[in-house]
């Protein structure tokens, strides 16, 4: 059997929606994009939802809403995708890596508190795998030290913190619609915001800094005349991608239920394994169940994580790893060295612990019982063959 790591949940509705846009004569950002934004805003109870061609560009624009100068420090978790830190570097600022919690892989509050200096400008927590980071203490730290907080919610649609949807908080929040995310537009992102002036600025900055109706300029009601009021970027989505997003949103409750069922099934199948540490649930925090990470109990095994990944591959099972800690990448090693900042791996004991042990198993809404059982049985048999 061959099990892919992920499979997008696409049916005739997305195909017809794209076909309708292609036939309509309007391909780039327009009415479909605004319809998608309105639906998303309603779904996560956001005042504003502004869509982008990726979460990375949405993060870049979210950061540009604050006055970030070269040398400013922004605290990010060490265990995240590189986009969280690279967008900080776009400003010449320093991504300061905080260790994460050993069980949730979310940013550690204790580590954040130790890293605050008079250069700290903000914090970007990541809701790893869709489980919300502990936002209340983070908001408290931000209030105390006058810092901004931007949520990297790339994994977190739909997730809830104390019954409130991620995306509904005051902080800017950034979602990803990359191909393997919980809803996809192929490539895409969304920025949710509560502040009206910031939302206006973000809309301009995603399209060259030109005033707000410029997207209409090739339509009958548009005009050739426009002004440029900001240094902007070319980060808008298209109506082709947004039409896929609309169809994905319509069935997102169903997709979420399917994901949760598969996670429950995995939890049940692995519950008696002595060689696996399962990802926890947390009171008051509901995950989107974007991915299914497990950690190997290396102390009870005679092999390492790479061996297990290779064995799964031999059995036709594609897996992944979330994430290689950022301080291990050449670019960040060299960057820290260039500014005389220590990059000692011992500073990140939990990130190292996770890096040595984590494997992300296949998870997608159309996964059958037979497929999840095949994954679980194979993983359990590889581990039991190699248990000490
Ligand atoms: C935590 C995190 N942040 C940001 C991104 C960037 O998303 P995108 O690929 O839509 O730019 C990703 C992508 O996987 C991610 O995992």
Topology record:
Elements: H1 12-24, H2 31-43, E1 48-52, H3 55-64, E2 73-77, H4 83-89, E3 94-98, H5 109-115, E4 120-123, H6 135-145, E5 148-149, E6 151-152, E7 160-161, E8 164-165, E9 173-176, E10 189-193, H7 196-205, H8 239-250, H9 252-270, E11 276-278, E12 285-286, E13 292-296, H10 305-314, H11 330-338, H12 349-357, E14 358-361, H13 369-385
Parallel strand pairs: 2-3, 2-4, 4-5, 6-9
Antiparallel strand pairs: 1-10, 7-8, 7-12, 9-10, 11-13, 13-14
Helix pairs in contact: 1-8, 2-8, 3-4, 9-13
Mind explaining what this structure looks like?
This protein has 388 residues and is α/β, with parallel strands linked by helices. It has 2 domains: 12-251, Aspartate Aminotransferase, domain 2; 253-385, Aspartate Aminotransferase, domain 1. The chain contains 13 helices and 14 strands. The chain has helices at residues 12-24, 31-43, 55-64, 83-89, 109-115, 135-145, 196-205, 239-250, 252-270, 305-314, 330-338, 349-357, 369-385, and strands at 48-52, 73-77, 94-98, 120-123, 148-149, 151-152, 160-161, 164-165, 173-176, 189-193, 276-278, 285-286, 292-296, 358-361. The strands form 4 sheets. It has a 4-stranded mixed β-sheet. Helix 1 (12-24) runs antiparallel to helix 8. The mean pLDDT is 96. Bound molecules: pyridoxal-5'-phosphate. Pyridoxal-5'-phosphate binds next to helix 3 and helix 4.
